[in-house]
Specification:
The protein is an alpha+beta fold and 70 residues long. The protein has one domain. It contains two helices and three strands, in the order E-H-H-E-E. Strands 1-3-2 form a three-stranded antiparallel sheet. The chain is elongated and about 50 Å long.
Length: 70
């Protein structure tokens, strides 16, 4: 027990960077969508969010998932 809480109610701290990252798992994308570069993904995300400029970078993992940092 931590601070009087049972294990199933323990509160864990989340690093601040995790609040600024999003992992996107591939699903039913077209072949063209799967081949987009990181720059294209950031541009498309920012365009879809009214050019807010919140997306900074995107990184492709070997698994096919994509990490987007805001």
């Amino acid at each position: 027990m931590a601070r009087g809480r049972p294990d199933d109610q323990r509160v864990y701290l989340v690093p601040a960077r995790r609040a600024r990252e999003l992992v996107v798992a591939l699903g039913a994308e077209s072949a063209t969508q799967k081949q987009k570069t990181s720059l294209e993904l950031v541009r498309d995300i920012n365009t879809a969010t009214n050019s807010s400029g919140d997306a900074i970078t995107a990184r492709h993992f070997l698994s096919g998932d994509i990490l987007v940092a805001f």
